[in-house]
Amino acid sequence: MLSPDLLTWRAELLRPPGPLNGIARATQQRINRLIPEKVHAAITAGIEGMTRALLVGSDFTTGSPMIGLTLDERRARAAKAIDGWKKAAAAEGGVTGAGGFLLAAADFPLLMSFKIKLLFEIAAIFGHDGTQLPERLFILHVFELAFSDAQHRAGVMAALEDWEAREHPQHLDDFDWRAFQQQYRDHIDLAKLAQFIPVVGAPLGAIVNWRLVERLGHTAVMAYRMRAEEGANASTGTGIVNPLS
Q: 218 CB contacts (<8 Å, ≥6 apart)?
């Protein structure tokens, strides 16, 4: 059995979408039609490029896994890392939000790189080696979990459950990166499109970036905690709630 806060978090993520989701989606599509096609093309190309770089592992270095820390120590280190990347993302979002369409479009791949680096850092904090294929796949799924619609999240959560006991793909080519980047774009477009608005784009860009990184960091910490608890429970047959201590 997972800890109560993990069960609550899992239930919230898997809650069926409400009628407001459909309204938000329709609004997003209408706003998208107002944005120049070259901006959309730049955003998509940037996301695909960053995703490909992640999948082949060419642009990211990982820290050594942290061994022997208690759960409280890991959570404290993760909170510090999240805070640092939130501040960096907010500063970057404010600058690009003040620069018009092209700079605002450039914010998408830049922000994504911050998020990916944060995930690698959190993986190391929770004792995992991000250079290994299963760990990179886990990182990709955590990203999807934070930035996907309700229907897609259910499939991602199913893939993450009992991670240690599962067989994993032998090649990164087996990962559906196109769905990954499409879910990411569709999920954050409505929030990020406000960054294109003159005058208010800068403060909105800073706020939105801060919140998106905060969401990802929280999702990552909870996902790694879930993984640890499930692994500990499977190996001991008991309801351990602090398996990393």
A: 82
Which CA distances in Å does 222 have to 10, 122, 175?
9, 11, 22
Above 90 in pLDDT, residue 103?
Answer: no
Long-range CB pairs of 189-193 (<8 Å, 24+ gap) are: 189/28, 189/31, 189/32, 190/24, 190/27, 190/28, 190/31, 192/104, 192/107, 192/108, 193/28, 193/31, 193/32, 193/35
C-alpha span between 225 and 71 (Å, rounded):
9
Tell me if residue 101 falls in helix, strand or coil: helix
* pLDDT of 101 strictly over 60: no
Token pair in block for residue 22: 């459909």
Provide the residue type at 106 as one letter. A
Shortest CA distance to 147 belongs to which of 224, 222, 215?
Answer: 215
CB neighbour list of residue 175: distance below 8 Å, 6 or more residues apart: 55, 137, 140, 169
- Per the CB < 8 A criterion, the answer to whether 160 and 225 are in contact is no
CA distance 125 to 200: 37
**Is residue 237 left, alpha or beta, with left meaning phi > 0 and alpha meaning psi from -120 to 50?**
left
CA distance 33 to 189: 12
Decide if pLDDT at 188 tops 80. Answer: no
How far apart are alpha carbons 225 and 223 in whole angstroms?
Answer: 5
Strands (E), 74-170: none
State percent of the chain over pLDDT 70. Answer: 71
In percent, the amount of the chain with pLDDT more than 90 equals 36
